[in-house]
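TODO from last week: model DNA repair protein RadC.
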Amino acid sequence: MTLHQTHLPDALPGFHPHRISTARAREAEQHGHRQRVRERFLLAGGDATPESELLELVLFRAIPRREVRTLARRLLETFGDFNGVISASANRLTSVQGVGTSVIQELKIVEAAAQSMARTRVMNRDVLSSWDALLDYCRTKMAHMEREQFRVLFLDRRNRLIADEALQTGTVDHVPVYPREVVKRALELNASALILVHNHPSGDASPSEDDIAMTRKVRQGVDALGLVLHDHLIIGGGGSYSFRSNGLI
């Protein structure tokens, strides 16, 4: 009986060892980068961490096994800064290459947490003596909105926040305001004072003539009922404007 030697091929068709080694090296490099970013954050803290790395830390959770530096850079280029990224609408985020449902979810979790923390700093406190915290809260909430929104902060007799409500949302450069509705809502909440807040998506917080006229009408309504209008704040991407500080209230 003759034995026939079986010869196995040196490699399977399409099998390329160098490709596997390259992929493994890339994966190891990404893992090392993630570890270094996490370690730097733990040592330096959030204030000393570059925005690009803060964003990467968020993206690590959404995209566990892929390189995220490119996506972080792309998001910052599109929306300007970290706050702009987490505040961007889902529709605008989706338009960025590499952004999917998991990325949007993580970004919106961070946005909700930031707003909750900012709100906690002004709840159950005299907002007039915590003015910087109030401004931070308003900026966190509204500075990067894509449409104008009109909000009212309703306060009790001790100037503590009773409610923060968005009464109207408009277009990119206009929001309708009805002074009668503002006063009506203040009475429903048994509020003693109000602070008006709206945003300018253009970034310029300077008041328009319509803003000034509307504020006067609201003040007339609250004055007639013995309520106090403390201020009207305009929030823009580049800063804020206080009617009271500028002598308009």
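Done. The chain has a mean pLDDT of 84.
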